[in-house]
Amino acid sequence: MQHLSWICSATVWKIFLGRNHELYRLAALIDWALLEQEFGARYSENGRPEIPIRLMAGLSYLSHAFKTSDEETVRRRLENPYHQHFCGEEYFCHELPIDSSSLYRFRKRIGEKGCELMLQVTVQAGLVSRTVKTNSLERVTIDTTVQEKAIAYPTDARLFNRSRERLVRLAGKYGVRLRQNYNRLGPRALMWVGRYFHARQTKRARREIKRLKVFLGRVYRDIICKIDGKDDLQTVFSAELALAKRLLIQQRQDKNKLYSLHAPEVECIGKGKAHKKFEFGVKVSVAVTNRDNFIVGMQSEPGKPYDGHTLAGATTQVERITEQAIKRAFVDRGYRGHKLKLLQVLISGSKRGQCAADEEGAETAKRYRVGDRPHEDGRQTGTQPSFGYFGRQNPCPSVRSRAQYPAYPQETEGAVAFFVRRDACRTFCRLQLAFTTR
To answer: Structure pTM?
Structure first.
């Protein structure tokens, strides 16, 4: 390779890489300069030199597009020249560029607005590659689904025992001597709960669950007594004690119950599915173009709000990302009573001639049959298959650290991850089709 040392880096990549490969072409469609300009302000001028922003953004795109973990994304980048070119490398590198934990810190640094900017760049790439048409951005289909959290199925027995273990571990770390820690009796009682329920001996199983609750209550009260008057220890134990208290006082019919200790924001949502009565995660609003089925908006909706109350925020985000006003929104009957007057909203299943919008909207509503999902051409929309793919492939990551950017960052990150992945895959398919039909 010494005789090629005088050749510029771009020429070297053109010699060894196929210029019709989707990643090679997609690298030219993404506005990397915009990402570097926006994210560069979040770094300090002092200290250790920063990692190239294009490298971090490129790895984030690849991780979401190919559904790989941070560790697997960094490893694949080492052996794939197309991944290296996509991340801005001038020559082939034989060493790992970063530690996989740097990707987590990068997402934490850019925050929710930074993730939304990366989504906006994917939409622009879709427009440039003609994956989506400009006039398609004026008509969107909006619906909600549940983004499940990667947690174990919540049971009282498991939560009681897990909370006791966390308190005992924290007490040992800071030198708080407990009267009894129940490290032997707790797992034994948890084991018998499963065995008794399997044998349909409900009374005995409930007796063991009550025993686990008693163990947690004793450890909880013992720690409170031992740290009384010690401000430094009270600060350390406050979060865990608050979670333990929620477990001890919550009842079967209560609302906003605690379902996970490492992700206390998890909600129990019932969407009326026959195969899954309840889902544990967060409600997510998704917006796609009505004609091209290209995702142009996605955001988490904590608190299980009514679908009609999420419509205003969903349309605002779509207009902010696409930089184009929405003229018509297609929704299902769960959005009835939304009271949104700023645009034309067509609800599926509306009776002939009835529409909450203007006269033009009423004429358009005549095209739908009762029971049809909304689509401008009168055919079934592709939104629901997209939602199914989203739910299966994108559980919320289990973020154990609470030191994050605000407003449920792990749900927002998981939602935008699907957005990037779905749009990137559609752009890949578009580029592959353009190559095979040439």
So the answer is: 0.72
